[in-house]
Amino acid sequence: MSEPVPSRRKAALVFIFLVVLIDVLAFGLVIPVLPHLVEEFTGSTAQAALWIGVFGTVFAAIQFLSSPIQGALSDRYGRRPVILLSCLGLGLDFAIMALAPTLWWLLLARVFSGVFSASFTTANAYVADIISPEQRAKSFGLIGAAFGVGFTIGPVLGGWLGEVDLRLPFWFAAGLALLNFCYGLFVLPESLPPEARSRRFDWRATRPWAAIVLIARYPAIIGLAAVVFIANLAHYVYPSVFVLFADVRFGWGPWQVGWVLFLVGVCSVLVNVAVVGRVVRAFGERRALILGLSCGVAGFLVYAFAPVGWIFLLGLPVSALWAIAAPASQALITRQVDKDMQGRIQGALMSLVSVAGIIAPIAFASVFGLFIGERAPVEFPGAPWMLAAALLAAAAGIAWRYAPRAPVRDPIADAG
């Protein structure tokens, strides 16, 4: 059996959990009000929808550019200053969004949000620094739980605050991020000792395309990186089409959709907190990865073919088990990367996720429009879920082929 994680490391892990939770909660707060604020500027719902699409693409593109830079900075100067700067920057950025007098001002603020939100890569590297290889999958599961909690509570709270004033959620989000900065300033220890840091900051490693080159230097993780990319492509089916699909297929309005998203978040939290660690211990990281992806396939097929709403709901706990895959893949990847490269590898992976965020919304929206439009080859609103299921099935096949079948040498443990 592995040794328990020391109390100091547990405290640091708790703080990282809170950093991610508060950051995600802050972003969740503005989800229900940002489109209405854009609509206020444009004066047209159709124009607002177009601009929201532009905002999403720009946000993902900026993350794509920023993630490897933050990862490299954390490898050179340590995780703590990068995480704290991100918290401070997000707080100031949400305040700017609350004060935005024009649409272009709001768009500029979203650009800065994309820059500072890339700190999730540094949070992953921090976990890899302080947690033993045997405990990493469970710890990454806790980070996943923070995402689930934030995106479960955030939109509900943001909608309630937005009823009072459309800009109030932005102020509340700014307060949370700045509180996070103050808390971390006094509590967060550095996880990367000076001797383990990169000797210099290499700008060449921060080029967006350098992510592919960097991953190619580690042949053992190329297949796993492909799994991460494809799985994130599939995940974007939720924000891309769920609201419209629920309306067309089941006649659900905002109230029903809100509660379904709440259930999705609850299921995700339960899986990350109570299931991930047990499954990884019982089956190992490779089998847990394949099992999680397979559950995602099954859940999406239920969504695609559900004739009525209650059958769709039956797919929620099945697809929620997909959450097992992400921490399992992260644990497998970190086992095969040197300590002073963890930040850059996490930044490279986040760049791939950002590319998925640029491509996927257009793909899923186009498929949805094709199969519900007048020229549809067959009326099938569930087509986007079928596409997502096919992507996850492909990811499962790649994982079966390339994921290590047994624990491999861990460079971090060896370095320690």
UniProtKB/TrEMBL annotation:
It comes from Luteimonas rhizosphaericola. It comes from the Bacteria. Gene3D superfamilies: MFS general substrate transporter like domains. The keyword Acetylation does not apply. Its main location: membrane. PROSITE patterns: MFS. Keywords: Membrane, Transmembrane, Transmembrane helix, Transport. InterPro entries: MFS (IPR011701), MFS_dom (IPR020846), MFS_trans_sf (IPR036259), Tet-R_TetA/multi-R_MdtG-like (IPR001958). The chain crosses the membrane at residues 12-34, 46-69, 81-101, 107-128, 140-162, 168-188, 209-237, 257-276, 288-306, 312-333, 345-372, 384-403. PANTHER family: MAJOR FACILITATOR SUPERFAMILY (MFS) PROFILE DOMAIN-CONTAINING PROTEIN (PTHR23504:SF15), MAJOR FACILITATOR SUPERFAMILY DOMAIN-CONTAINING PROTEIN 10 (PTHR23504). SUPFAM superfamilies: MFS general substrate transporter (SSF103473). It is a multi-pass membrane protein. It is found in: Membrane. Residues 12-407 form the Major facilitator superfamily (MFS) profile domain. This is TCR/Tet family MFS transporter.
